[in-house]
């Protein structure tokens, strides 16, 4: 009657159809099939949760998945299907873990390379590639991979742009991602979260970071099509140029400058 | 300025003709003969009207001359090689076949090469919404939607029926070079042929295709537009025997696969002229792969692969393997018959009228349409039937077969019917060539509704046959 449920699953999949759980079969091992109502509840619930505590990575991830389907994730996959590297990514479906990336090797790469910048960034923020949540609410297995790839590439976007994981940096990156990928969740965060900012933070965000993020996100090539594993040796500056991205001013430096002025 | 130069250019030509006419008495005499009816064009429409006229007792004794520019030798000797099928194939509706049977043609069509089908699936390549037609439920047990017939098979059957008919002359390899009306001919058409002879006639029937010279000579305008789309046709081999038709609407145009006997299939892929040219250049293996992609993958995938032919054999098999098997998609295509790929520009055109004094237009000469509804040739069959009946009625009364009064019932019968059909097909084409998400959503709702509401489907089916 009851299936053994992986411990990591948020909502236990039930074989019988309920109001929230769909009774269609799993498309991949971690998949949690939901009904439309289930998806809506998930979106609203995780949306509230995220608004009050944006450090709840699991909720951010859930909100992202709940709002990407059915339309936006297909659009993002379409961007990948239009690009030779994007297609190769879909075919090979590489996953990023601390093992697959060999962080020690990255630490020895030359300064300014993507790999080195990335690992320095991980070390500075104290995060690891393994902390990224597994996709489970996207129904199409290939779209689920697109979501997973987007999520795992996120840390590289930090490395690429140099934005830190403080609230404004995180949000600016979300705005950049929204403009670049079209996923609505990042757009939602971009407009809602600043409501909680202090006036000074808000001004900095709207005057400097948001314009930078939108401008660069829209005009640069789709960053989802970067095969990060293959450009690790490449100079970050060069990759930015290839993609058409400018580096934003250092947020933490700016904070210090402003504090000094006071 | 412009006008005066055109006039100057035109005038000598007119003079020349007149002089030529006036010297006919002294010069080596170009033969002028009379034929009650002259049919220009040996395509499906022209041969059908000739066969119909030779069927009715009222018209069988009228002298008929059929003039065809091309050679009919290939058609006459065309034999049944079951390992090859022509690339020009049309789906004949039950009413077309019914009439062809009535006038004795259908028994001469090689039936081993005709494939009936009773099931049809059409679906939206962007949203996946689909509509399915199944005649066993809709039109009663044992009714077919249509009969896939090679144009050559039909024409060959028509020629067999026409063989040894009295008062019939078929002139092939002969071109109609001009049509004149002079006082001496009592304003009736004088048809000038490339062999030097002239035929005077009471009724000139233009069955001479989309660029109809008869229509031009008669000063009848045809209005419409270019779809800026080409129809790529090919004969393909399927993995197994099929009795179903499929059509998938892609933003570049629909792709249709229709069944033929012996595991063959007839493909009509309407797409941009550029893509049609690229598809014709692919190797047979690449082309077969692309056709399978076109029925299974997303539009983005298809467009990418056509642009990157060297990735077709490496990338496409993976993309296809990602699709879960879909029962609505045709079985895999395994080969394409060599030299069977050809493409035609698609146009929507409708003549302002089908008739003038002593002139009637039938078939593509009167109207051309997008092949998505498979109606082009059937419309011509309807024209031929209606016109033949109008002529028969006049002949029975002993009336002038060429007068507009005689021809009017034909025009009244067919013009509005055809106009409606051309309009519907045109709207369908436009509706499905957009990617606008709102339109895609609405049209999918529409298709889903059509699929689930039986009366709507019944209505559409009855319109199609
Ligand atoms: C890609 C494609 C797919 C199609 N699929 C279907 C389908 O599934 N079902 C369907 O019903 N229809 C279909 N059609 C339409 C169908 O092929 C045409 O409607 C049909 O062939 C028209 O027949 P016709 O006799 O009117 O003209 P044509 O077949 O064009 O015949 C005209 C003839 O006139 C001759 N001619 C022209 N000028 C002269 C001259 N000056 N002197 C002497 N002879 C002349 C030509 O040589 C030609 O033989 C399709 C068309 C295309 C392009």
From TrEMBL, chain B:
<keyword id="KW-0503">Monooxygenase</keyword>
<dbReference type="GO" id="GO:0071949">
    <property type="term" value="F:FAD binding"/>
</dbReference>
<dbReference type="InterPro" id="IPR000689">
    <property type="entry name" value="UbQ_mOase_COQ6"/>
</dbReference>
<keyword id="KW-0831">Ubiquinone biosynthesis</keyword>
<protein>
    <recommendedName>
        <fullName>Ubiquinone biosynthesis monooxygenase COQ6, mitochondrial</fullName>
        <ecNumber>1.14.15.45</ecNumber>
        <ecNumber>1.14.15.46</ecNumber>
    </recommendedName>
</protein>
<comment type="similarity">
    <text>Belongs to the UbiH/COQ6 family.</text>
</comment>
<keyword id="KW-0496">Mitochondrion</keyword>
<keyword id="KW-0560">Oxidoreductase</keyword>
<dbReference type="InterPro" id="IPR010971">
    <property type="entry name" value="UbiH/COQ6"/>
</dbReference>
<dbReference type="GO" id="GO:0006744">
    <property type="term" value="P:ubiquinone biosynthetic process"/>
</dbReference>
<dbReference type="GO" id="GO:0016712">
    <property type="term" value="F:oxidoreductase activity, acting on paired donors, with incorporation or reduction of molecular oxygen, reduced flavin or flavoprotein as one donor, and incorporation of one atom of oxygen"/>
</dbReference>
<dbReference type="GO" id="GO:0106364">
    <property type="term" value="F:4-hydroxy-3-all-trans-polyprenylbenzoate oxygenase activity"/>
</dbReference>
<dbReference type="GO" id="GO:0120538">
    <property type="term" value="F:2-methoxy-6-polyprenolphenol 4-hydroxylase activity"/>
</dbReference>
<keyword id="KW-0999">Mitochondrion inner membrane</keyword>
<dbReference type="InterPro" id="IPR018168">
    <property type="entry name" value="Ubi_Hdrlase_CS"/>
</dbReference>
<dbReference type="GO" id="GO:0031314">
    <property type="term" value="C:extrinsic component of mitochondrial inner membrane"/>
</dbReference>
<dbReference type="InterPro" id="IPR051205">
    <property type="entry name" value="UbiH/COQ6_monooxygenase"/>
</dbReference>
<comment type="function">
    <text>FAD-dependent monooxygenase required for two non-consecutive steps during ubiquinone biosynthesis. Required for the C5-ring hydroxylation during ubiquinone biosynthesis by catalyzing the hydroxylation of 4-hydroxy-3-(all-trans-polyprenyl)benzoic acid to 3,4-dihydroxy-5-(all-trans-polyprenyl)benzoic acid. Also acts downstream of coq4, for the C1-hydroxylation during ubiquinone biosynthesis by catalyzing the hydroxylation of 2-methoxy-6-(all-trans-polyprenyl)phenol to 2-methoxy-6-(all-trans-polyprenyl)benzene-1,4-diol.</text>
</comment>
<comment type="subunit">
    <text>Component of a multi-subunit COQ enzyme complex, composed of at least COQ3, COQ4, COQ5, COQ6, COQ7 and COQ9.</text>
</comment>
<dbReference type="GO" id="GO:0016491">
    <property type="term" value="F:oxidoreductase activity"/>
</dbReference>
<feature type="domain" description="FAD-binding">
    <location>
        <begin position="36"/>
        <end position="391"/>
    </location>
</feature>
<dbReference type="Pfam" id="PF01494">
    <property type="entry name" value="FAD_binding_3"/>
</dbReference>
<keyword id="KW-0274">FAD</keyword>
<dbReference type="InterPro" id="IPR036188">
    <property type="entry name" value="FAD/NAD-bd_sf"/>
</dbReference>
<keyword id="KW-0472">Membrane</keyword>
<dbReference type="GO" id="GO:0005739">
    <property type="term" value="C:mitochondrion"/>
</dbReference>
<keyword id="KW-0285">Flavoprotein</keyword>
<dbReference type="InterPro" id="IPR002938">
    <property type="entry name" value="FAD-bd"/>
</dbReference>
<comment type="pathway">
    <text>Cofactor biosynthesis; ubiquinone biosynthesis.</text>
</comment>
């Amino acid at each position: 009657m009851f299936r053994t449920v992986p411990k990591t699953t948020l909502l236990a999949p039930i074989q019988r159809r309920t109001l929230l759980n769909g009774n269609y079969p799993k498309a991949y091992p971690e998949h949690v099939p939901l009904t439309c109502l289930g998806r809506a509840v998930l979106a609203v619930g995780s949306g509230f949760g995220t608004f009050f505590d944006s450090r709840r990575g699991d909720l951010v991830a859930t909100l992202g998945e709940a709002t990407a389907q059915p339309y936006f994730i297909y659009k993002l996959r379409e961007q990948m299907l239009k690009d030779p590297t994007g297609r190769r990514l879909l075919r090979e479906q590489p996953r990023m873990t601390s093992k697959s990336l060999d962080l020690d090797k990255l630490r020895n790469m030359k300064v300014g390379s993507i790999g080195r910048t990335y690992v320095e960034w991980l070390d500075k923020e104290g995060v690891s590639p393994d902390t990224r949540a597994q996709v489970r609410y996207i129904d199409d297995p290939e779209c689920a991979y697109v979501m997973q790839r987007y999520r795992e590439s996120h840390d590289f976007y930090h490395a690429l742009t140099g934005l830190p994981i403080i609230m404004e940096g995180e949000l600016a990156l979300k705005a950049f991602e929204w403009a670049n990928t079209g996923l609505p969740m990042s757009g939602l965060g971009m407009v809602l979260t600043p409501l909680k900012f202090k006036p000074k933070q808000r001004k900095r965000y709207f005057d400097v970071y948001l314009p930078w993020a939108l401008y660069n996100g829209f005009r640069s090539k789709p960053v989802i099509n970067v095969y990060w594993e293959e450009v690790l040796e490449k100079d970050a500056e060069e990759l930015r140029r290839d993609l058409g991205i400018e580096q934003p001013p250092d947020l933490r430096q700016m904070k210090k400058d402003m504090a000094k002025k006071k | 300025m412009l006008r005066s130069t055109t006039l100057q250019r035109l005038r000598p030509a007119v003079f020349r003709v007149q002089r030529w006419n006036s010297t006919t008495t002294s010069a080596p005499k170009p033969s002028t003969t009379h034929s009650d009816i002259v049919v220009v064009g040996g395509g499906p429409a022209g041969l059908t009207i000739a066969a119909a006229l030779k069927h009715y007792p009222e018209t069988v004794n009228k002298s008929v001359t059929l003039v065809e520019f091309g050679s009919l030798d290939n058609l006459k000797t065309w034999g049944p090689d079951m390992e090859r099928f022509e690339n020009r194939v049309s789906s004949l509706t039950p009413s077309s076949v019914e009439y062809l049977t009535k006038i004795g043609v259908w028994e001469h069509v090689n039936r081993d090469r005709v494939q009936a089908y009773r099931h049809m699936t059409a679906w939206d390549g962007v949203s996946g919404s689909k509509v399915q037609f199944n005649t066993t439920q809709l039109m009663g047990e044992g009714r077919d939607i249509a009969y896939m017939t090679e144009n050559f098979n039909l024409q060959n059957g028509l020629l067999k029926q026409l063989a040894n008919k009295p008062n019939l002359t078929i002139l092939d390899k002969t071109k109609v070079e001009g049509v004149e009306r002079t006082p001496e001919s009592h304003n009736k058409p004088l048809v000038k042929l490339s062999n030097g002879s002239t035929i005077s006639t009471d009724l000139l029937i233009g069955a001479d295709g989309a660029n109809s010279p008869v229509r031009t000579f008669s000063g009848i305008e045809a209005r419409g537009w270019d779809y800026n789309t080409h129809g790529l046709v090919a004969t393909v081999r399927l993995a197994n025997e099929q009795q179903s038709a499929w059509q998938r609407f892609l933003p570049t145009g629909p792709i249709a696969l229709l069944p033929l006997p012996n595991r063959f299939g007839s493909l009509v892929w309407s797409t941009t002229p550029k893509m049609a040219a690229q598809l014709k250049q692919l190797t047979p293996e690449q082309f077969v792969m692309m056709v399978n992609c076109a029925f299974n993958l997303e539009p983005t995938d298809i467009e990418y692969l056509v642009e990157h032919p060297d990735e077709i054999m490496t990338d496409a098999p993976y993309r296809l393997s990602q699709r879960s098997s879909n029962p609505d998609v045709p079985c895999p295509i395994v080969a394409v018959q060599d030299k069977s790929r050809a493409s035609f520009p698609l146009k929507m055109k409708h003549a302002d009228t089908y008739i003038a004094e002593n002139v009637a237009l039938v078939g593509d000469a009167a109207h051309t349409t997008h092949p998505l509804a498979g109606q082009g040739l059937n419309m011509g069959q309807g024209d031929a039937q209606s016109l033949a009946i109008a002529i028969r009625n006049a002949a029975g009364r002993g009336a002038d077969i060429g007068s507009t009064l005689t021809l009017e019932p034909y025009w009244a019968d067919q013009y509005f019917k055809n106009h409606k059909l051309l309009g519907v097909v045109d709207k369908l084409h436009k509706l499905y060539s957009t990617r606008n998400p709102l339109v895609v959503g609405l049209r999918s709702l529409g298709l889903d509704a059509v699929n689930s509401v039986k009366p709507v489907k019944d209505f559409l089916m009855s319109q199609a046959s």
